[in-house]
Specification:
With 381 residues, this protein is an alpha+beta fold. It is 37% helix and 25% strand.
């Protein structure tokens, strides 16, 4: 069961309209790019995002700016080394804090119980990495098994949960700490490239953590039983969603074709998840929205959510957790789907209700999972 999901964001809030105006005012972009900026930001479905970059705030004065010169209004272009050094400092702090909150929130599990640590991130690199920092920061045993899933993109928390589930099946006493931290705003930049403009309108910083275990306890803790997982690669889209390393930071390719590709491939991507379950007939009859109560869809963007909702016949209420996460926090890459799962639990999901989760990333890869709500009072693992 996945339990004690905790989420954190940096202190600096970005107002979407203000960020839009900054990007639209850059001297190095043309008239067409300015129009694309306006459209991308206005239809994003985002009100606020969060960043570790204090200097991006319009209310902060920095004597020697690195990313944004508030006096001139110009976005600067630090090199990848500078960006990654900031990642090393800030991400390390957030990994440890998110991990600590997940352990502290659990009434039954302590740091001494943790047997495995899985960390997830695609927005920076360093070694010893965040898995090591968590072991040291929380005082975990040196023998804790550590794994890092790096540079997989927005879907990476899903295979992290699957690996955690497999560890628990292999060892019924295992307690796996899963932590995702993404600092996407470190790689924002001004550009005429429509794909980079779209990325600049969506991505944000955030962290999420949770505990996965098959152990049973006396306390009643809400969570999600991890029932099934499936990975699918679409027949097209390899060049439409990509994540590479450039001289001025990491470069996201997120083409306008992605929502269409997801919409056209989503049935083939999800069919194996429901095969050989009681939900198979509902999926084939296009009534899966009636059979599965909750949908933890990674909000890669508003148009992606629109396409998923239309193709699967989901209600506005079912997409509410994903849309609200996007509106309040933006796209925090791999951490985002955990934010959505937490919101589903916080909004009162009932014991035994099903949750279908899905996240998309480079490849184009679709990771999906089927879960069951375990509510307080059920004493289920």
């Amino acid at each position: 069961m996945l339990r004690s999901i905790q989420t954190i964001v940096p202190d600096t809030v970005l107002i979407q309209e203000e960020v839009r105006d900054v990007f639209a005012a850059q001297p190095d972009i043309g008239r067409l790019a300015k129009r694309i900026v306006a459209t991308s930001f206005n239809v994003s479905g985002i009100d606020t995002r969060y960043t570790v970059l204090d200097e991006l705030s319009l209310s902060t004065d920095v004597e020697a700016p690195t990313f944004f010169d508030r006096a001139s209004g110009e976005l600067l272009s630090p090199g990848t080394k500078t960006r990654n050094e900031l990642y090393t400092r800030e991400a390390g702090r957030m990994f440890v804090e998110a991990a600590r909150q997940a352990v502290d929130a659990d009434p039954d599990i302590t740091a001494a119980d943790v047997t495995h640590v899985i960390t997830v991130s695609c927005t920076g690199f360093h070694a010893p990495g965040p898995d090591f920092q968590i072991v040291r920061g929380l005082g975990l045993r040196d023998g804790v098994q550590r794994y890092h899933l790096g540079f997989m993109g927005c879907y990476a928390s899903m295979p992290a949960l699957r690996a955690a589930s497999q560890f628990c099946r292999a060892d019924p006493d295992a307690v796996v700490l899963v932590v995702s931290v993404e600092l996407c705003t470190l790689h924002l930049r001004s550009s005429d490239d429509p794909d980079l403009i779209v990325a600049s309108s969506l991505f944000a910083d955030g962290a999420a953590a949770g505990l996965v275990t098959a152990r049973t306890f006396d306390s009643d803790v809400a969570g999600l039983r991890l029932d099934r997982f499936h990975t699918s690669i679409t027949s097209e889209g390899e060049k439409d969603m990509a994540w590479t390393i450039g001289d001025q930071g990491f470069e996201m390719v997120l083409s306008t074709a992605v929502p269409h590709i997801i919409g056209e491939s989503i049935h083939d991507a999800l069919r194996p998840l429901y095969a050989e379950t009681a939900l198979a007939a509902a999926f084939e009859d296009d009534t899966i929205g009636d059979a599965v109560e909750h949908w933890a869809i990674h909000p890669g963007g508003r148009s992606i959510l629109d396409r998923v909702q239309d193709k699967l016949g989901l209600t506005d209420e079912q997409l509410h957790p994903a849309r609200e996460t996007l509106r309040e926090y933006g796209n925090m890459s791999s951490a985002t789907v955990l934010f959505v799962m937490k919101r589903i639990l916080d909004e009162g999901a009932q014991d035994g209700e099903r949750v279908s989760a899905m996240a998309f990333g480079p490849g184009l890869t679709a990771e999906s999972a089927l879960m069951t709500v375990v509510a307080p009072g059920s004493h289920a693992a």
